[in-house]
Amino acid sequence: MNRRDFVKQSTITAAAFGLSGLTTLLPKSAHASVWDVSFTAEGHTKNMVDGASVFTWRYRDPGGSGPGDLSSGLVVMEGDDVSITVFNDLDRPINLEIPGVLEGTPQVPPGGSHTYSFTAPAAGSYVYFDSVNGEIGRAMGLAGPLIVMPADGSNSLYVGGPTFDRQYTLVLHELDDRLNSAIAAGGTYDMANYEPNFFFVNGLSYPHTAADGDTLVDMFVGERVALRFVNTGLITNPMHFHGYHVDVATRNRVPETAVITKDTVPVNVSECVDVILPCNQPGAYPLHTHYVPGVTANGVYVNPYGGALIVMSAS
Amino acid sequence: MSSVNLKHGHHGPRRAGGRVGGESPQGDAERTFRFLGPGHAWLTVDMMGRQRMADGRRLRTWSFGRGFNNDRSVPSPVIEGIEGEMLEVTLFSMMPHTIHFHGLDVDQRNDGVPSTSGFVAHGHGGGGHGGGGHGGGHGGMDFGRVEGYDNLGSPFTYRFVAPHAGTYAYHCHVDTVLHFEMGMYGTVIIRPPGGLANVVWDGGPAFDREYIWHLHTFDSSWHDETVSSRRTVRHRPDYFMINGKDGANAFSDRATAINGAPGDRILIRSNNMGYQPALIQLGGLPFQVIASDGRPLPASFTTDQQLVAPGERYDLLVQLPSVGDWDAQVHYFDIGLRRSLGVATTSITAR
Fold first, then answer.
1. Domain of B327?
2. Across residues A89-97, what is the average pLDDT?
């Protein structure tokens, strides 16, 4: 049984998890657990939805790489002891930082490794990334999500916080293939010229998003669905919901002081925004960035390519 | 326009100072934009539009109906509805287009999205539970399946009960990245029950005058295209607009420039239908942010600038403090919020 199946069958949380490509390390009891994970930072040729190939970087957990070739993610519980050993197969130094959790961390030289250890912090959605290479590192893909579940084992965003019946983690990122080509050729790139042309949710572009079980938001009328947006890219994504308004619950783990109900939720660079969707009507509806060029693949919107657009299906 | 086809009838305004259907709160003499509705709106599609920019250039545009006002081709007209009452919008088009009612939370049939709404018309399992059925179907966004233009030239009527009073949008969802840019977008205003037109929602703060600020830009190099392609990869705007007007045309535009008397409470319904985040400043005047995306904010707040991301709406309330003149600015930023790409400036005048 792989880890995702374990979580889906776990009795400790009744929530159905939709955690695309995440290495889920939920314990069998509410007691703190110890986890050792290995990430390999590596180059990778990623296939675009229109058939193009683009050289990217990623942190890959050999046991848990996701369907969209994105960097691996982690799901843990508050208080867990987590060690991530990073092997660096890239041609330059990197590191791994988690804003608010692990900062100012040591570098890993090419060919080397380093083990980063931390105690899982307060429940919520986090982003981790390489900070050695600045925006280039994130543009190339060295960033991923860390989800921390509350220590009481409840289906809530944090102890005493908003509850949900199921949850999805939606990693938002994009790339500018001119940057990737320059890096692949051993050069660099002026980030002032960063204008992305491929866009992803969980590493996938539409219509592949609608065929992935962890990215298609599948729900029943009457449920409360938690959606965790984790922006690992370098643009703002105003995520627009068809069919529903949602309640914005937290931004970077800070609870909103009152319920703000929106149909378009901006998710800024390196920001984590958790929302609760009260599913109040049946149907199939898109959820997409309203940076409209972000629903294209290299400029093309028409049949059958797309970008950062997923489908919500409710019955 | 009469209130036809309303299930429960429309009983007209409950008070003076505003009336729905063809009249802004300013009254006919100062009417600034064309309303359609309430109850029913008929829209045709004009793909032969020309928009005159401040530098004299004329850009090709597409729009629903006859434009936001007589003197411009885009944005498209304002559609007005009344909370809790049926709103019907009939679209006539010989070409493939739809209407998506942005933020109105309509059901799937009326959502105007080719890849999902189209499934309803032809029974391809839209709304079915279980991911397996979606992959194959979504793999082919077949325009021929799309309800609303599977009978080109025949009218299609969208029907829904207007939700919470507030500010919404509508736009074409076919080849969205280009149809949107070309001007197939507009504002929807849902009035409170009974059609009150001097409050945004029943019980909300009152206003004396209202303006719509439809915020958008053009990348002129896209306006000779007919379909999205590798020639529409990167949007680099060169015209920065409010309500279809840029440069000197925005400064004095009667639909945009704010005119009032000291003490007047001015409502600005900002609606970002562009591809860039827009920062609104009212020349230093403080204003209240009272609602967003068709919902009152739990607590309004006072500020002197508000960022409106693409697709967002914010309702702003400003009270003109004294006789004076102010330059209001809308700065359009790149989507990474790295720098301002351009600005639209309009005037605020209190006499």
1. 209-350
2. 97
